[in-house]
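Cross-check.
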Amino acid sequence: MRSLGLAVVAHALLLAALTLGVQWKHDDVTLTAEAEIWSAVPQQAAPKLEEPPEEPTPPPAPSTVRPEPVPPRPVPPPIPKIQPPEPPEVDIALEREKARLKKIKEQKQAQDKLALEQRRDEKLRLDKLKQEQVKQDQLKQDKQDKALIERKRVQDQRAQDKRELEKRELDKREKDKAVALEKKKAEQEAQRKEDAAKAQAEAKQLEAQRQTNLQRMAGLAGATGAPGSSGAALQSSGPSASYAGRIRASIKPNIVFNDDITGNPVAEVEVRTSPDGTIISRKLTTPSGVASWDDAVLKAIDKTGKLPKDTDGRVPSALEIRFRPKD
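Predicted model, tokenized:
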């Protein structure tokens, strides 16, 4: 913009100088002169050329008369050339002055035309420079706008990604919290059920023991022991000889195990039941060394759910059962 301003000032000064240089020739020069036209030597004009009148032709004579010869017609003398008078010196000076003024006027018109063309060219050049500057400014502004839009888009994308990441983390924390809460509730519910089952089993056991004590206090008339038995209870506390086979027969169909193993490992499980035979808990006391066999045994016990009663109608509260895959 500074260079453009200096160029405009320089051209303006140039146009002012040209205008002042031709301004003094703008007014026409008016000359006032008087002249008398006279001849230094008096001269008379030549006489006007007149052709002589034609003579009448005589009538033809009879054929017997010989015609007389016609004399030749005289040739008129040549007309002398009259030299035009030389123009006076005053007319020559006027013509020269007019020619000079005309030339000056033409030069001024040419200069005015040249100055006009220069002004027009300068205006066109300035307009072109202005248009180029406007175009460059527009391109620069467009570039800045595009850069600003791109920067804003990147910032918005980063902010959106950050919000989505925070949302995913929050959802994950909420989900983990809900899972932990559900797991805790499930554990509490399982513990409550286990405590309730234990309490019910203990209450039933206590009730059974109380009934047993009442029966023992009532007398030993209903004892079922052998004649040589030395016990004091009405009934024997141990299971019958066939009870183990009955328990094995109820659990074994529920065992699902297809692995090929070497040997015949033993898995020993402690099972606790309620008086009606419902399995309250089971625990692997002696692993067999084959995890898949141990899991199959525990799942089979869970699937069984309830043990059969002994011949006397009772189910032991605690049993230790051994399982072998090849039995």
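Residues 89-218 form the longest helix (130 residues). Confidence is low (pLDDT under 50) at residues 219-223, 225-232. Passed to J.P. for a second look.
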